[in-house]
Design brief:
single chain, Rossmann fold, 6-stranded parallel beta sheet, 5 helices, about 15% strand, binds magnesium ion, binds zinc ion
Length: about 200
C-alpha cells in the first residue's frame, strides 16, 4: 500500500512560531505548493495522513471546537482541489499526560495504519515528512523513512543530529512529494539526500 504521513504545522501550513500554536482560523496559512504536492500524491494513489501534535488543547489555549474549525479550513482548501485526506490524527494531550500519541510517540501513526487495515511492519519504506527533529525521530520510531522539509521550524544545519538524521532534506513539500514518487517508481537518481 502507498501511504505517506505528514506533519501539519510548518509542512502544510506556515509554522506558527516557537512555542506558538495556530489558534485562529485566519492564522492557518496554507502553503499553495503543499496542496499541489498532496494532490500529486493522491493522484498517484497514496493514502495521505496528517499526524500532528496540538497540545494547545491540553494546555487549555484553544477548545476542541476551535481546532475543528481550523481543521475544516484545511479540509475545505484540499476539497477545492479534489483532495480528501485519508485521516487527520491529532495528539491534543498535555505534554505531561505521557500519552502514546504525542510525537515522538507513534500512537497516532499506528491508529492511521490500523484505519486502513494495515500494521506498521507491513508498510515499511513509507515516508514521514516533517519540519522538526521530533518529526524525524517519530519517523524512526515507527520504522519509516524520513524527509525534513525546510519550510518550518528546523533547518538541517542548525540541528545537532544524533543517530536519527533525516533520510532526505528538501526545501518544501513539493520536493518531498517528488522524492516519494520517484522512490517508489524506482527512479531514485534525483534524490537529494544529505543524510
Ligand atoms: Mg511541524
Ligand atoms: Zn496524545
Amino acid at each position: 500500500m502507498k501511504i505517506v504521513f505528514l506533519d501539519r504545522d510548518g509542512v502544510i501550513n506556515q509554522y506558527p512560531g516557537h512555542g506558538e500554536y495556530v489558534t485562529r482560523v485566519k492564522d492557518l496559512h496554507i502553503f499553495p505548493e503543499a496542496v499541489i504536492a498532496i494532490k500529486r500524491l493522491k493522484d498517484a494513489q497514496y493514502k495521505v495522513f496528517i499526524i500532528s501534535n496540538q497540545a494547545c488543547i491540553g494546555r487549555g489555549i484553544i477548545t476542541q471546537g476551535k481546532l475543528d474549525q481550523i481543521t475544516n479550513k484545511l479540509i475545505q482548501a484540499a476539497d477545492r482541489r479534489g483532495i480528501t485526506f485519508d485521516g487527520i490524527f491529532y495528539c491534543t494531550h498535555h505534554p505531561d499526560d505521557q500519552c502514546s500519541c504525542r510525537k515522538p510517540g507513534i500512537g497516532n501513526i499506528k491508529k492511521a495504519v490500523a484505519s486502513v487495515g494495515k500494521t506498521l511492519s507491513s508498510i515499511k519504506g513509507a515516508f514521514f515528512v516533517g519540519d522538526t527533529d521530533k518529526d524525524i525521530e517519530t519517523g524512526y520510531n515507527a520504522g519509516l523513512k524520513t524527509i525534513l522539509v525546510e519550510t518550518g521550524r528546523d533547518r538541517y544545519k542548525h540541528v545537532k543530529w544524533g543517530e536519527n538524521k533525516p533520510h532526505f532534506v528538501v526545501q518544501d513539500l513539493e520536493a518531498a512529494a517528488e522524492i516519494i514518487l520517484n522512490e517508489n517508481s524506482g527512479h531514485s537518481r534525483h534524490r537529494r539526500s544529505r543524510a
